[in-house]
Amino acid sequence: MSALVCMVFACAPQNNTDTSKKAVNTETVLADTTVSKEREWLMQSINRYFTTTELGMLDEVRRSISTSAYYQYKTDAMQVGLDVEEGMSEEEFDEKWKGRFDTSKAGIGLGFLISGQDWDSIEVEKCKVASKTAHGVWFDVVLKDITLQEDYISKILVDVEEGKFAIADVQQ
Question: In which domain, by residue range, is 141 found?
Answer without folding.
Answer: 24-72+111-171
